[in-house]
Amino acid sequence: MKRPGALTVGAVYGAALLLSLAGFGATLWYGVAEPGNALAFGILIALGELARWGAPRNPGAPPVIEELRGREPAPLGAAGALAYALLGTDAGTATTHGVLQIVAVVVAGGLVGIVPHLARGRGPRADHLARRVLTVTFAALCFQPLYNSGAVVEHLGKGPSYAVFLLLLLVLTALCDAVLAAVVLRARTGYPYGPLLHDELRALLGIGSAVCATGAVMAIGVAAAGLWALPVLAVPLLLTQVSFRRYAAVRTVNRQTIASLARATEIAGYTSPGHAHRVAALSAAVGRELRLSGAELSVLEYAALMHDIGQLSLVDPVEGGATALLPAEEQRRIALLGGAVVRRTGVPAAVAVVVERQADPYRDQPLPARIVRVVNAYDDLAGDGPGAALGALERLRLGSARDFHPDVVEGLARVLARGGVTGVTPAVAG
User: Fold this and answer.
1) Which pLDDT score is estimated for 342?
2) pLDDT of 426
3) At what angle do helices 127-148 and 160-189 cross, to 10 degrees?
4) 227: exposed, middle or buried (C-beta count within 10 Å: 0-12, 13-18, 19+)?
5) Contact indicator for 84, 41 with CB cutoff of 8 Å
6) Closest Cα partner for 372 from 293, 278, 262, 294?
7) Are 46 and 88 in contact (CB under 8 A)?
8) Which among 130, 36, 136, 34 is positioned nearest to 79, based on CA atoms?
9) What contacts 395, CB < 8 A, 6 or more positions away?
């Protein structure tokens, strides 16, 4: 039996595929209206996909950071698709392309732009293209019938009222995309829907607003000046996109450096193999369970990766790397030493704060530090086998009145009851 998440993603893909087939079928049957416009916007969308930002996915990076990075990896392509959906006239001449041709051009341009990435083995997931098909169809359905019937011009004219109409339509389209993105991510990860939607809505204030604004300006520019407006209006967003690719490459190197640093304690024999990455993965899942935002999860995962770096200061390694079994003062000393190291790595100061405070009394800790404390103790105590994992969870529950925050322990129990995460032994939560 398929998981509900797989069914949800399948439904999104299925709807996008049906719309794509309908678009290609109608376009082949009736022919292409205004082929110049279709070609120009198709090329623009393909260029946007070719220049999609972000470095290749990094298997060594924390899972949530990988899952949330690059919410809109091809903003120029998205802006071009939105502009074509909102195009009513070309240099003052009314256009006759319909909703289905818009879908066909968007899909064709997107596929052409993705092919080179697939050839290099860096093919992206189809999530973004499926969402784009659905959201562009929504925008086109809202705009094209009203505009082609003359209702928009008759009631709103071409002045400020028309601009307000486009703004409202863009807001609705952006909300539609945010809801779809959160639904797909919820299905893939099992994280709570509320924080995911909150993160997507926050992202709209950044690149989302730029995409919407550029799409609207492109549509208005082509309506007034013709297709020559497209390259002029596309260049700024394209340059921004290329610049961000370089920035993303630097970020990728930084993530790889931190992942390597996190393994230093394992290589030196201070902690068990894979301990840092297990704690990071499980901490992220618990953080999602407790409704942390995307930015808070990034801090949490980096802190979880480097939570044991202070052990390198020890003359004699702790047996099994189990710092949870050390006296409280020794745990605090290791945590403070670890925080001092983390502050030299260039990560946000909030990461060092979490590392430094993971050994404080839980009532005085920020939530990310409470999570690292609980998950680290669980991994130290779990050992091998479901029996040991269940025993570790019970020990955490018994210590929740003194050493561990009860809400975090119960959040961990819920995550483990659902099967945990890859590389972490699940336990049955009673």
Assistant:
1) 82
2) 46
3) 150
4) middle
5) yes
6) 278
7) no
8) 136
9) 381
Q: What are the phi and psi torsion angles at 93 (to 5°)?
A: -100, 130
Joined together, the tokens standing for residue 309 give 């770096």
Kindly give the interhelix angle for 349-357 and 367-382, rounded to the nearest 10 degrees: 50
Using CA atoms, how far apart are residues 338 and 417, in angstroms rounded to an integer? 32
Length of the chain: 430
Give first-to-last CA distance, the chain, whole Å.
25
Task: Going from the first residue of the chain to its last (430 residues), give the mean pLDDT of each consecutive group of 10, the final group possibly shorter.
Answer: 66 93 94 92 90 52 44 77 91 88 94 84 76 94 88 77 85 90 82 79 78 86 87 80 71 73 74 82 87 82 84 65 68 81 79 84 85 87 67 79 83 81 49
Contact 309, 355 (CB under 8 A): yes
Which one, of 3, 87, 7, 93, lies nearest residue 41 by Cα? 87
Residue 35, pLDDT score: 92
Residues 6+ apart with CB under 8 A from 10: 2
How far is residue 249's CA from residue 55's CA, in Å, rounded to a whole number? 5
Q: Is 89 helix (H, G, I), strand (E, B) or coil?
A: strand
In contact, 106 and 81? CB cutoff 8 Å: yes
> Residue 89: which of 228, 227, 215 has the closest Cα?
227
Rounded Cα–Cα distance for residues 425 and 430 (Å): 16
Task: Tell me what pLDDT residue 70 has.
Answer: 45
Provide CB contacts within 8 A for 209, sequence distance 6+. 174
Evaluate whether 396 touches 278 at the Cβ level (below 8 Å): no
Q: What is the pLDDT of residue 315?
A: 58
Per-residue pLDDT at 39: 94
B/e letters for 93-106, b = 16+ CB within 10 Å, e = fewer, are eebebbbbbbbbbb
- DSSP letters along 212-269, please? HHHHHHHHHHHHHH-TTHHHHHHHHHHHHHHHHHHHHHHHHHHHHHHHHHHTHHHHTT
Is the sign of the CA dihedral 294, 63, 67, 404 positive or negative?
A: negative
d(C-alpha 335, C-alpha 167), whole Å: 50
- Which pTM was predicted? 0.74
Q: Are the beta carbons of 419 and 379 closer than 8 angstroms?
A: no
Find the DSSP H helices in 149-191: 151-156, 160-189
